Amino acid sequence: MEHKSDLSILHLGLTGAIFWGVGLFFITILSTYFGYAEMLVDMLIEIYPGYDRGLLGSFFGLFYGALDGFICFSILGFIYNKLSKCQKL
């Protein structure tokens, strides 16, 4: 039985996937065509293989961002659920 304040790990993971994937897609587009957030994109190019400025790189960013967001937000939800079950002091 789920605890009353449990978060859905799947739903939180999907929210993170959408948030980070779409955000990374648009940041890449803005960086490519308008020079916005170039330092951030340069940093992310070092982290995500195949990711680069341009239209194809934007889709790599969408994929990697969705994967990364899903994993990180799912872990966050898991930790929250475990900590919410701890006894209060």
What does this protein structure show overall?
With 89 residues, the protein is mostly helical. It has one domain (9-84). Helices cover 74% and strands 0% of the residues. The chain has helices spanning 9-34, 38-47, 55-84. α1 (9-34) packs antiparallel against α3. The two termini are 24 Å apart. The model has no long low-confidence stretch (mean pLDDT 90).
Percent strand: under 5%
What is the chain-wise order of helices and strands?
HHH
**How many structurally independent domains?**
1
Radius of gyration: 17 Å
**Class per helix and strand makeup:** mainly alpha
Quick take:
With 89 residues, this protein is mostly helical. It has one domain. It contains three helices and no strands.
Key features of this structure:
single chain; 89 residues; mainly alpha
Protein topology:
Blueprint: H1 9-34, H2 38-47, H3 55-84
Helix pairs in contact: 1-3
